[in-house]
Amino acid sequence: MFSCEERVNELLPGRCREWSEFRGQRHLTMVREDLLPTMRVLRDSLHMNMLVDVTAVDRLEYEGAKDRFEVVYFLLNVDTSQRLIASVFLNEPELEIDSVYSLWKSADWLEREVFDMFGIRFRGHPNMKRLLLPEQFAAHPLRKDYPVQGRGERHNFPVITRASS
Amino acid sequence: MPMHLTEDEVDEYGRREGLWTLNFGPQHPATHTTLRLLLTVDGEEVVDAEPDIGFLHSGFEKLAEVLDFNQYVTIVDRMNYVSPMANEIAWHHAVEKLLDIELTPRCKYLRTIFAELMRIHDHLLCVGACILDLGGISAFMYANNERERIFEICERVTGQRFHTSYTRVGGLLFDVNDDAIAMLREFVQGFDKTFADMDKLITRNRIFVERTRGVGVLSKEAAISGGATGPVARASGVVRDLRRDEPYLAYADLDFDIVCSREGDCFSRYSVRMLEMLESVKIIQQALEKLPSGPIFADGTGKEFMPEKREVYQSIEGLIHHFESIMPNRQMPCEPGSLYAATESPNGELGFFLVSNGTFRPYRARTRPPSLVHFALFPQLIRGCMLSDVVAVLGSLNIIAAELDR
Amino acid sequence: MAKQLSERGDSILWTKLDAAANWARKNSLWPMPFATACCGIELMAASASRHDLSRFGSEVMRFTPRQCDLMIVAGRVVMKMLPVLQRIWLQMPEPKWCISMGACACTGGVFDTYAVVQGVDRFMPVDVYIPGCPPRPEQLIRAVIDLQEKIQSTGTLNASEFLQQTTPKGPDRFDSDELGRIRLRDRLALKLPIYNPRH
User: Which of A78, B115, B168, B346 could tie B119 with a disulfide, CB 3.0–4.6 Å?
Assistant: First the structure.
């Protein structure tokens, strides 16, 4: 059993990255510029052949957080069931990050959903537009400064009466 | 009429001549719920499909941030509404991993039984609805009879037919009584007959086989790269099942097989689902035999679990205990950190990514929905197929809109 | 409803045109199943074996609005879906009725979020509400029977009773809470999209 940590550090030396563990799960934190090369190494040399999920966390109200947005990638080696959580921190106004669509096809919709919900753009994504909300929607609802009940968008429709239908 | 034009002969909208666009949904009988497809069609052949989703986006993940770990279970239920209890089990599996709680053996076995019961329920509806869309109604009726029996068991155990909200952090709402065990045994014994009925109606039905075999083929590489899990991946030859690869609940003690197929077409997805139901029945049988006695709530040293409902209603201590476990400022603390935990839901890998900031309420609760990932594969499955195959492929993927959009 | 003329024999019935039309309409309600979420599964259960809605003359589920006269809104309706719902409602021929099935369709239910419409009756007429999350199939059958009674007692031949209902009967679409949020949005100078269901 190889150590994921050692292999990545060996193949991509001298970069700023951090490893941690919580409840037996490995977390890798890296800087934005490092994302694509690291992901490529993880896929090709460590056989993380499935991208299970991509999501983001808005750490605006999180106590002690330095950066606002965290984009999280969940990787899986299908044959050995080894998992890895990789994350990148972002801050306004540069909410842009490289797309991993070229490595895993499943990133397509997952990255679009992150864009929809948090407003983080993915550079190099073939079809970067909203996935779940209507095109005209103005906000990114999973940000912490957006109210749960919205800002009146849900009731912005004409009313049909019996006589007029 | 097939057109023989080269790629650069396009009209002012960027489309090849002779192609037409067909709007499929959002209100269409074969979409089961609400999704929309923009199909580009060359005569009868589907050239491209662009799914448009979000017609049931209800803000589940935003709602998770204002509810606590026990309250959110009612919302999770409504996510994949064809197998509600499987979602609850997945949710509390993640929460218990975050809070570092070890369940009691009885609770583990009961959750296993219900997870498998929900798998049968989901597959029955998926298979029944798929054949219904392809023109056969009898198999759907047979499946529905069996589903009603599952609903009866759920109602007997939890008091609700459908959205049971049965699990709690560290345990279950109620213990199961002998009545319900008897009903479960009866269900397990009677299931073979329904299965045989459905099998006879569908598996060798020529119309069904011809409409599904070789249609919507997903290769093994595409399945892995596209993130497919569950029956969809197993039908394409990916031998992966979280119940075996990352055992949770009581699955490590039980003996069952993983159903796989190689073809990756609609028919093999159907067969995998059918045979998985038999495996689930096997698991339920074994779990009923081995069902241990004992408490259903974990031992809460330093942790406040919900007391059993009977205690709450009949004793003042129970009432105080309940109050303490509900009040936001008295709930058990939780170590800050983030964690991903997944279970094998009927549809595939249903995972939750939890970020905790130390309170009994998730700071962020991301759902990893299998339906979303599977539906993203749809355009590549349907390219080159006939228009009528759209329904077959949709039915075999088992897209549940509420889980797709959340 | 009908009075028999005994001296003329059994073959003649005496009734009002309105009552005859109502009788015919109420016993052949063709539902348009606008099933979006969980309630749709119970709607399926209601029309399938065991519960069998066809005993009450309304099992002919038609998925095209042009052939239906009963809209069953089953499940939550969200921001993106409401224009579709209104459009389908407008496409249905008169006379038509609407059943709002389940807590989400009636009031938004547990989903008090930015995306979910807090009750379809804010935007379109509703005749019968069914509580429950989701309601049992028996409740749906009861609602159909209630609607049949309503049609029998209030219907007219040319559906003129609908023409008098010029004001919306549901709650105001912008209640005070919602108005507060909209004021906040105005302060932030955010634009709202415009939808037109008749488009």
Answer: B346
CA B400 to chain centre: 8
Under DSSP, is residue C42 helix (H, G, I), strand (E, B) or coil? helix
- Model confidence at C181, pLDDT cuts 50, 70, 90, reads confident
pLDDT digits (tens, 9 = 90+) for B303-329: 667 777 777 888 888 888 888 777 777
| C11-17 contact pairs (CB < 8 A, 24+) | C17/C157
Assess B226–A contact: CB distance below 8 Å, yes or no.
yes
Q: Could you report the per-residue pLDDT of B55-68, keeping only the tens digit for each?
A: 888 889 998 888 88
* Shortest CA distance from A26: residue in chain B: B339
Residues in chain C within 8 Å Cβ distance of B75: 110-111
Name the residue facing B59 among C37, C63, C116 (closest C-beta): C116
| Chain B neighbors of C80, CB-CB under 8 A | 54-55, 57
**Quick check: is A163 in a domain?**
no
Tell me the per-residue pLDDT of B35-50, one tens digit each, with 9 for 90 and over: 888 888 888 888 888 8
Interface ipTM > 0.85: yes
Residue A47 placed within a domain? yes
Give how many domains chain A has, as a whole number.
1
Does B67 contact A at CB distance below 8 Å?
no
Spell out the residues 6+ positions from residue C76 whose beta carbon is closer than 8 angstroms to its own: B56, B58, C36, C37, C102, C104, C105, C108, C109, C111, C116, C117
Which sequence spans correspond to the domains of chain C? 14-162
Distance between alpha carbon B173 and the CA centroid of its chain, in Å? 21
Tell me the H-state helices in B81-177. Answer: 84-99, 105-133, 138-158
Q: Which residues of A touch B220 (CB under 8 A)?
A: none
What residue numbers bound the domain in which A15 lies? 4-155
Asked if residue A160 belongs to a domain, the reply is no
What tokens were used for C106?
A: 């009636």
Structure tokens at B303: 């942790």
- CA distances to A11, A69, B133, C165 from B390, rounded to whole Å, are 45, 39, 10, 43
The fold of B60-392 is Cytochrome-c3 Hydrogenase; chain B (1.10.645)
Answer whether residue A50 is part of any domain.
yes
**What token pair was written down for B76?**
């999770």
**C157-164 contacts at long range (C-beta below 8 A, 24 or more positions apart):** C157/C17, C157/C18, C157/C21, C159/C94, C159/C95, C162/A162, C162/A163, C162/C94, C162/C95, C163/A162, C163/A163, C164/A163
- Out of 3.40.50.720, 3.40.1010.10, 3.30.420.40, 3.40.50.12280, the CATH code matching C14-162 is 3.40.50.12280
